[in-house]
Amino acid sequence: MKATLIPAEATAGSFTTVSLELTIEGETIRQGGYLKVAPFRRVANYWAPAQGRMRERKNYVTLNTAADAGLCLTIEGGWDALVRVETGRLAHGDTVTIAYGDTSGGGPGFQLSSLAGKAELRISYAPDAETEEEEIAQVFFYLRPGEPAELRARLRKEPGRQAALLRPVLIDRFGNTAENSPAGLKVESIEGVEYEGQNAFPKGGKALCAGVITAKAPLPCSRIRVSAPSLGLAALSDPVSMDTQVFWGDLHCHTRLAQALDTPEFLYEYAKNDAALDF
Known about the structure:
Layout: E1 2-6, E2 9-11, E3 15-16, E4 18-23, E5 34-39, E6 61-65, E7 69-76, E8 80-88, E9 95-100, E10 110-111, E11 117-126, E12 134-144, E13 150-157, E14 163-171, E15 186-189, E16 193-197, E17 209-215, E18 221-222, E19 224-228, E20 233-236, E21 240-241, H1 264-274
Parallel strand pairs: 2-12
Antiparallel strand pairs: 1-4, 3-10, 4-9, 5-8, 5-11, 6-9, 7-8, 11-12, 13-14, 14-17, 15-19, 16-17, 18-21, 19-20
Protein backbone atom coordinates (compact mmCIF):
# COMPACT_ATOMS: atom_id res chain seq x y z
CA MET A 1 0.00 0.00 0.00
CA LYS A 2 1.37 3.40 -0.98
CA ALA A 3 -0.05 6.32 1.02
CA THR A 4 0.50 9.97 0.03
CA LEU A 5 -0.83 13.15 1.64
CA ILE A 6 -1.30 16.22 -0.57
CA PRO A 7 -0.23 18.62 0.83
CA ALA A 8 1.98 17.05 3.48
CA GLU A 9 2.02 20.13 5.72
CA ALA A 10 0.02 23.28 6.47
CA THR A 11 -0.39 25.97 9.12
CA ALA A 12 -1.92 24.85 12.42
CA GLY A 13 -5.51 26.03 12.86
CA SER A 14 -6.00 26.92 9.21
CA PHE A 15 -8.67 25.68 6.78
CA THR A 16 -7.50 23.63 3.82
CA THR A 17 -8.24 20.49 1.81
CA VAL A 18 -5.98 17.49 2.44
CA SER A 19 -6.12 14.59 0.01
CA LEU A 20 -4.95 11.14 1.03
CA GLU A 21 -4.13 8.96 -1.99
CA LEU A 22 -4.07 5.23 -1.29
CA THR A 23 -2.63 3.05 -4.06
CA ILE A 24 -3.03 -0.70 -3.86
CA GLU A 25 0.29 -2.52 -4.27
CA GLY A 26 -0.02 -6.30 -4.24
CA GLU A 27 -3.10 -6.51 -2.04
CA THR A 28 -6.58 -7.35 -3.32
CA ILE A 29 -9.62 -6.16 -1.39
CA ARG A 30 -12.76 -8.06 -2.28
CA GLN A 31 -16.43 -7.57 -1.48
CA GLY A 32 -16.90 -7.08 2.27
CA GLY A 33 -13.27 -6.02 2.74
CA TYR A 34 -12.24 -2.48 3.59
CA LEU A 35 -9.59 0.16 4.04
CA LYS A 36 -9.43 2.12 7.28
CA VAL A 37 -7.61 5.39 7.97
CA ALA A 38 -7.33 6.25 11.66
CA PRO A 39 -5.32 8.90 13.53
CA PHE A 40 -2.93 7.52 16.10
CA ARG A 41 -5.21 7.59 19.16
CA ARG A 42 -8.55 9.34 19.10
CA VAL A 43 -9.16 12.71 20.79
CA ALA A 44 -5.57 13.24 22.01
CA ASN A 45 -3.90 13.66 18.64
CA TYR A 46 -2.87 16.30 16.10
CA TRP A 47 -5.59 15.36 13.59
CA ALA A 48 -9.05 16.96 13.57
CA PRO A 49 -12.36 15.02 13.69
CA ALA A 50 -14.16 14.50 10.38
CA GLN A 51 -17.72 14.13 9.11
CA GLY A 52 -19.27 12.82 5.91
CA ARG A 53 -22.90 13.99 6.00
CA MET A 54 -23.10 17.79 5.82
CA ARG A 55 -21.47 19.14 2.67
CA GLU A 56 -21.79 22.76 3.73
CA ARG A 57 -20.03 22.25 7.07
CA LYS A 58 -16.34 22.15 7.90
CA ASN A 59 -14.34 18.89 7.85
CA TYR A 60 -16.57 17.29 5.19
CA VAL A 61 -14.90 14.16 3.79
CA THR A 62 -15.47 12.60 0.36
CA LEU A 63 -14.20 9.60 -1.59
CA ASN A 64 -13.08 9.31 -5.20
CA THR A 65 -11.75 6.40 -7.28
CA ALA A 66 -11.51 5.24 -10.88
CA ALA A 67 -11.40 1.59 -9.83
CA ASP A 68 -14.03 -0.87 -11.01
CA ALA A 69 -15.55 -1.24 -7.56
CA GLY A 70 -18.52 0.04 -5.62
CA LEU A 71 -17.20 1.75 -2.49
CA CYS A 72 -18.89 3.21 0.58
CA LEU A 73 -17.24 5.79 2.85
CA THR A 74 -18.27 6.13 6.50
CA ILE A 75 -16.75 8.06 9.41
CA GLU A 76 -16.60 6.00 12.58
CA GLY A 77 -16.58 7.76 15.92
CA GLY A 78 -15.83 11.10 14.27
CA TRP A 79 -12.24 10.08 13.50
CA ASP A 80 -11.78 6.89 11.45
CA ALA A 81 -12.47 6.90 7.70
CA LEU A 82 -13.73 3.46 6.61
CA VAL A 83 -13.83 2.62 2.88
CA ARG A 84 -15.80 -0.58 2.39
CA VAL A 85 -15.94 -2.57 -0.88
CA GLU A 86 -19.60 -3.29 -1.60
CA THR A 87 -19.24 -4.58 -5.18
CA GLY A 88 -16.29 -5.57 -7.35
CA ARG A 89 -12.79 -5.35 -5.89
CA LEU A 90 -9.75 -3.16 -5.40
CA ALA A 91 -6.69 -4.67 -7.10
CA HIS A 92 -3.03 -3.84 -7.66
CA GLY A 93 -2.63 -0.35 -9.14
CA ASP A 94 -6.05 0.94 -8.11
CA THR A 95 -6.06 4.30 -6.30
CA VAL A 96 -8.56 5.56 -3.74
CA THR A 97 -8.52 9.25 -2.77
CA ILE A 98 -10.03 10.51 0.48
CA ALA A 99 -10.49 14.30 0.50
CA TYR A 100 -10.55 15.81 3.97
CA GLY A 101 -12.28 19.18 3.72
CA ASP A 102 -14.05 18.86 0.37
CA THR A 103 -15.37 22.34 -0.49
CA SER A 104 -17.53 21.41 -3.49
CA GLY A 105 -20.69 21.69 -1.36
CA GLY A 106 -19.83 25.14 -0.06
CA GLY A 107 -18.00 24.07 3.08
CA PRO A 108 -14.93 25.99 4.34
CA GLY A 109 -12.61 22.99 4.19
CA PHE A 110 -10.83 20.93 6.81
CA GLN A 111 -9.97 22.88 9.96
CA LEU A 112 -6.63 21.62 11.13
CA SER A 113 -5.69 21.18 14.77
CA SER A 114 -4.52 24.41 16.39
CA LEU A 115 -1.52 22.59 17.87
CA ALA A 116 1.68 22.59 15.84
CA GLY A 117 3.19 19.13 15.58
CA LYS A 118 3.12 15.89 13.60
CA ALA A 119 -0.16 14.10 12.96
CA GLU A 120 0.13 10.35 12.41
CA LEU A 121 -2.43 8.47 10.33
CA ARG A 122 -2.43 4.69 10.29
CA ILE A 123 -3.84 2.73 7.37
CA SER A 124 -5.12 -0.79 7.80
CA TYR A 125 -7.16 -3.16 5.64
CA ALA A 126 -9.14 -6.38 5.61
CA PRO A 127 -9.13 -8.23 2.23
CA ASP A 128 -12.62 -9.64 2.80
CA ALA A 129 -15.38 -9.93 5.37
CA GLU A 130 -13.86 -13.00 7.06
CA THR A 131 -10.21 -11.92 7.39
CA GLU A 132 -8.91 -9.98 10.37
CA GLU A 133 -7.80 -6.38 9.93
CA GLU A 134 -4.08 -5.69 9.42
CA GLU A 135 -2.13 -2.42 9.59
CA ILE A 136 -0.16 -1.88 6.38
CA ALA A 137 1.01 1.76 6.21
CA GLN A 138 1.58 5.00 8.09
CA VAL A 139 1.61 8.58 6.86
CA PHE A 140 2.46 11.86 8.61
CA PHE A 141 1.06 15.37 8.28
CA TYR A 142 3.05 18.30 9.65
CA LEU A 143 1.30 21.24 11.29
CA ARG A 144 3.61 24.24 11.34
CA PRO A 145 3.18 27.31 13.60
CA GLY A 146 1.48 30.41 12.26
CA GLU A 147 2.79 33.97 12.06
CA PRO A 148 3.97 35.57 15.33
CA ALA A 149 1.10 37.11 17.29
CA GLU A 150 2.59 37.55 20.75
CA LEU A 151 5.99 38.09 22.32
CA ARG A 152 6.95 36.57 25.66
CA ALA A 153 10.14 37.17 27.62
CA ARG A 154 11.70 34.79 30.12
CA LEU A 155 14.32 36.32 32.42
CA ARG A 156 16.52 34.17 34.66
CA LYS A 157 19.05 35.37 37.25
CA GLU A 158 20.87 33.68 40.10
CA PRO A 159 21.01 35.57 43.42
CA GLY A 160 24.27 37.28 44.21
CA ARG A 161 25.29 37.38 40.54
CA GLN A 162 24.83 40.01 37.88
CA ALA A 163 24.74 37.53 35.01
CA ALA A 164 21.27 37.04 33.56
CA LEU A 165 19.73 35.07 30.76
CA LEU A 166 16.94 36.47 28.62
CA ARG A 167 14.87 34.20 26.40
CA PRO A 168 12.48 35.98 24.03
CA VAL A 169 9.81 33.68 22.60
CA LEU A 170 7.47 34.47 19.71
CA ILE A 171 4.18 32.56 19.65
CA ASP A 172 1.34 32.40 17.16
CA ARG A 173 -2.33 33.05 17.98
CA PHE A 174 -2.74 29.49 19.28
CA GLY A 175 0.28 29.53 21.58
CA ASN A 176 2.68 27.60 19.31
CA THR A 177 6.29 28.75 19.25
CA ALA A 178 6.60 30.65 15.97
CA GLU A 179 9.27 29.80 13.43
CA ASN A 180 9.78 33.29 12.00
CA SER A 181 11.87 35.82 13.88
CA PRO A 182 12.25 39.59 13.39
CA ALA A 183 15.60 41.12 12.54
CA GLY A 184 16.10 42.94 15.84
CA LEU A 185 15.12 43.00 19.46
CA LYS A 186 14.82 46.03 21.72
CA VAL A 187 15.44 45.70 25.44
CA GLU A 188 14.45 48.45 27.87
CA SER A 189 15.26 48.65 31.56
CA ILE A 190 12.32 49.33 33.86
CA GLU A 191 11.22 48.73 37.43
CA GLY A 192 14.50 49.41 39.18
CA VAL A 193 16.98 47.47 37.06
CA GLU A 194 19.31 48.01 34.14
CA TYR A 195 19.97 45.31 31.58
CA GLU A 196 22.89 45.28 29.17
CA GLY A 197 23.23 42.39 26.79
CA GLN A 198 22.78 40.94 23.35
CA ASN A 199 20.30 42.94 21.32
CA ALA A 200 19.46 40.41 18.63
CA PHE A 201 16.52 38.05 18.38
CA PRO A 202 17.58 34.38 18.26
CA LYS A 203 16.32 32.38 15.29
CA GLY A 204 13.17 30.54 16.27
CA GLY A 205 13.14 32.26 19.66
CA LYS A 206 14.95 29.31 21.23
CA ALA A 207 18.45 30.62 21.97
CA LEU A 208 19.39 32.45 25.15
CA CYS A 209 20.58 36.05 25.14
CA ALA A 210 23.28 36.55 27.77
CA GLY A 211 23.49 39.86 29.59
CA VAL A 212 24.13 41.68 32.84
CA ILE A 213 21.40 42.95 35.16
CA THR A 214 22.12 45.66 37.72
CA ALA A 215 19.85 46.97 40.47
CA LYS A 216 19.00 50.68 40.44
CA ALA A 217 16.62 50.59 43.41
CA PRO A 218 15.99 48.19 46.31
CA LEU A 219 12.90 46.53 44.85
CA PRO A 220 12.05 42.95 45.89
CA CYS A 221 11.32 41.97 42.28
CA SER A 222 12.20 43.58 38.97
CA ARG A 223 11.39 43.27 35.28
CA ILE A 224 12.57 44.46 31.89
CA ARG A 225 10.60 45.32 28.76
CA VAL A 226 11.32 43.54 25.49
CA SER A 227 9.93 44.55 22.10
CA ALA A 228 10.12 43.51 18.47
CA PRO A 229 9.51 46.81 16.62
CA SER A 230 9.26 45.20 13.18
CA LEU A 231 6.27 43.16 14.39
CA GLY A 232 4.73 45.74 16.70
CA LEU A 233 4.96 43.33 19.62
CA ALA A 234 6.19 43.92 23.17
CA ALA A 235 6.27 42.08 26.48
CA LEU A 236 7.29 42.42 30.10
CA SER A 237 9.67 39.77 31.33
CA ASP A 238 8.67 37.60 34.23
CA PRO A 239 9.90 39.10 37.52
CA VAL A 240 13.32 38.32 38.94
CA SER A 241 14.52 38.79 42.50
CA MET A 242 17.83 40.54 43.14
CA ASP A 243 18.60 38.59 46.32
CA THR A 244 16.36 35.49 46.33
CA GLN A 245 16.41 32.54 43.95
CA VAL A 246 13.08 32.18 42.10
CA PHE A 247 12.29 28.91 40.31
CA TRP A 248 9.68 28.55 37.58
CA GLY A 249 8.13 25.22 36.69
CA ASP A 250 5.11 23.08 35.83
CA LEU A 251 3.82 20.87 38.63
CA HIS A 252 1.42 18.78 36.55
CA CYS A 253 1.45 17.73 32.91
CA HIS A 254 0.65 14.78 30.62
CA THR A 255 2.06 13.16 27.47
CA ARG A 256 0.79 10.55 25.03
CA LEU A 257 1.43 7.97 27.76
CA ALA A 258 -1.74 9.30 29.40
CA GLN A 259 -4.39 11.64 27.93
CA ALA A 260 -2.25 14.17 26.06
CA LEU A 261 0.12 14.59 23.12
CA ASP A 262 3.69 13.64 22.26
CA THR A 263 6.43 11.95 24.22
CA PRO A 264 8.02 12.73 27.60
CA GLU A 265 11.19 13.66 25.67
CA PHE A 266 9.28 16.24 23.62
CA LEU A 267 7.71 17.69 26.77
CA TYR A 268 11.13 17.97 28.43
CA GLU A 269 12.62 19.77 25.43
CA TYR A 270 9.64 22.13 25.24
CA ALA A 271 9.90 22.98 28.94
CA LYS A 272 13.64 23.57 28.64
CA ASN A 273 13.96 25.33 25.28
CA ASP A 274 10.58 26.99 24.66
CA ALA A 275 9.09 27.71 28.07
CA ALA A 276 12.51 28.15 29.75
CA LEU A 277 11.31 26.42 32.89
CA ASP A 278 13.59 25.40 35.75
CA PHE A 279 11.65 22.23 36.53
